[in-house]
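Why does residue order matter? Because the sequence determines the fold. Keep that principle in mind as you read this record.
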Amino acid sequence: MTTKRRAAAVAAATGIALALGGLSAPAALADGPRTPPAVAEAVQARPWVVLSEGDREYRVLAVAAILAEERFYHKEPIATFDADLVAAVEEYQAARGLPVTGVVDGAVWEALSDDVGLVRAGDSRPALVNGLEHSLTHLGYSPLDHGGFTRAVKAFQRDRRIGVDGVIGPITFRAMYAEGAEDPV
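Structure:
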């Protein structure tokens, strides 16, 4: 499910629940309920960084960590896009009905974002959490320096004007991995 469709589905479900049951809206949504629309649009407008064999950077390790958690990559995640990662990306693309190229393009990033979903402190996916923590550290938000995962995510969100909730959702994920991730919005 794409990010836009997921957001529409959540909004529709919340509206139905409020109409039928008089329930209150959740206190916090992924990426914070107070993300200004202009910020969300600016983050979503940033193109994904295309990764391919030979690339060496923090995003490569993140992709390897996500694919390890999804059981497509069977090595310790590293920051080098090698032949093993190409094979894992191809297997992932085939499983998700994407064109099999071995390249991490926008369609792959969107699928990865959907598979990651929401990540908060205590998440039960260790390879994923390790990859996200490595990315936060690379971006200047080490969980060790910020007092834990939640505080590091909140600091990252605050600096990018994303609604602060300490949860990595689709907007925070894109802000971490799209072009310009090293710079605030």
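The first helix runs from residue 3 to 21.
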